[in-house]
Amino acid sequence: MAELTTLARPYAKAAFQYALEAQDLSGWAQQLATLAGASQYGTMADRIASPSLSAQQQADVLIEACGDELSQPVRNYVQLLAQNKRLILLPEIQQLFEAFKHAQEQSVDVELTTAFTLADAEQEKLAQALSDKLKRKISVRAQVDEQLLAGVIVKAGDLVIDGSMRGRLEKLAKAINS
Fold it and tell me: What does the similarity note say (predicted)?
């Protein structure tokens, strides 16, 4: 995994720099997500890694699968990746591009897992508190997990805050059993 990330980093950085200069970070992010998804769908991973296809054919297969979703600069980028035998890196490139984009925009995606559905006002209040704490713009994605019993689990990048009743009970059980 670390090797793939190391190989993908210069390609993600180059794509990010181009998108930043073209003022199209969102467009590139969306197109890279489409490419990453298409490259892993069904037998596509085998086809774009097939030694029986030329680099141009591999790029064409992937570009055709994405249809009109890709701009010309992104199509050129796919062809460059194919020439360098790096199409397999598209998922890692997409993840790194998103990380660069979030750092540039000083934003973070936050996943809230609660025991029950939060009212919009509660969710906004929690998002504002997280925004103040992390000093970043927050994009919240909420989900419900009834097994939490009560409380909330917040995941923001590498940060995980487990304020759930289930988490507290597990900590208590570990302390008792130690």
Answer: Belongs to the ATPase delta chain family.
144 CA to centre of own chain: 21
Q: Which residues contact 168 (CB under 8 A, 6 or more apart)?
A: 151
Cα separation, 5 vs 96, whole angstroms: 8
82 and 111 belong to one structural domain: no
Q: How does pLDDT run across 7-57, given as a tens digit for each residue?
A: 888 988 988 898 888 888 888 889 889 888 888 887 877 787 778 878 888
Strand order in the sheet with 137-144: 137-144, 107-114, 152-156, 159-162
Where does a domain end: 78, 103, 128? Answer: 103
